Structure formats: structure tokens, C-alpha cells
Amino acid sequence: MFKIVRSESVKLKGSFQLYFAVGVMVLQLVTVVPYVLLLKNGVALVDVALLTFAVYPLVTSMSAVLLFEQEKMADSFQEIRCYPKKYQLWGIKVVLNDFLSVGALMSTWLILGQIKLALSAFFLIVLLEHIHIGLAFFVDQTKNILFGFLEVLFVIFASNKALLNVYVLPVILPVNYIFRPSSLYLLLYVSYLILATCIVLWGIRRLDQ
Questions:
Q1: Residue-wise pLDDT tens digits, 165-176
Q2: R_g of the chain, CA atoms, integer Å
């Protein structure tokens, strides 16, 4: 397992995925952090957080697309099909992708000491990553990114507290949690995350067919 982690980590060096994640992180650090430090209004801080949350679906959809494009360019799918531990291999790829996106997007709130916002960001990023990686097995990159735009609209509506009692849209749950911390949101979140992970596993199996 450690050999797989090391091998996949080496692949990330110099990859578009890494450059994209670093670029997003730097952009947030030079824009969001200075702006928030000048704010003294807690409500305005939440507004800034929700504005950045609305970008997360596009970032994670691009991250998933870049992961699959990298594998296609390296002609790795045939190699993965023949690999005896392909589920473990894909699991490590997904976790590393999660790590990149979480590091790029959540670091801003950790630096600012906003633990609640960082936790909500973590929930949203991981869920979106699993959703878009799962989608990448079944749809082309354009449709994956378009789905990200649709999720942006859901996050915007949720940021206006318009969807507090809606439970069938997984991407709005971390946003609703900011306004109304509830164990129900967490329970539903875990359920949707498991469902998204199952779709990823189905996609991996589908590659063998």
C-alpha cells in the first residue's frame, strides 16, 4: 500500500492537478485572507465564506476532470484494469485528490482560525470530490463541469437560507449546517457521502466491462 501511495504521490509532481490546486490556494490566500482580516463584522465574514463556497463545485469538477485526463494521457486505464488491487489503487487516487482540494480550499479558513467554516468547507469539498469523480466514470468532462455550474446555483440559493428544509440536495447540507447546526444534516451528509463513494466503486467496476 505504501508503495502505491508513494507512486501516486510522485505522479502528482509536475501534474496539472498540483498546479491547479496550488494556483487556487494562492489565489484564495492573496484575496480572501487580507479581505477577511480587514472585516470586523461576523455576518460579512459568513457572506465571504459562502461566496467562496459557491466556487467549490467548479474547482472540484475541474480537479476530477484533470485526474481522469491525466490517466487517459498516460494510457493508465488499461494498466489499472490489469492491476490486481485496482480498488485500493483508485481509493488512493481519490484520497490524494481529496487531499489536494481540501488543502487548496480549506487552508484559508484554518489560517484565519475559523474552525466552523473550515469544517463546513471540509464536508463540502470531500462530498463534491466524490460526486465529480463518480460522475467522471459515466459522463464526459463537459457534462461534469456543467453539473458543477448547476451545483453553484444550489449553493447560492442555500446561502440565502432558501433551502434550509430541503434534504434531497447533498451539496447544500454543509451550507445549511453553517446557519443551523444539526445532527440531521450530519447524518444525511454521511449517507450521501457513502452513496457517492458507492458510485465511485460502481464506476471502477464498470471500467472492467
A1: 889 999 999 999
A2: 17
Residue 6 C-alpha from the chain's centroid: 22
Report how far residue 32's alpha carbon sits from residue 29's, in angstroms, rounded to the nearest whole number: 6
DSSP letter string, 46-111: HHHHHHHHTTHHHHHHHHHHHHHHHHHHTTHHHHHHH-TTHHHHHHHHHHHHHHHHHHHHHHHHHH
For residue 137, how many C-alpha atoms fall within 13 Å in the half-sphere facing its CB? 21
Q: Check residue 113 and report its DSSP letter.
A: T
Percent of the chain with pLDDT over 70: 91
pLDDT digits (tens, 9 = 90+) for 82-91: 666 778 878 8
d(CA 63, CA 45): 26
Q: How far apart are CA 192 and CA 169, in angstroms?
A: 9
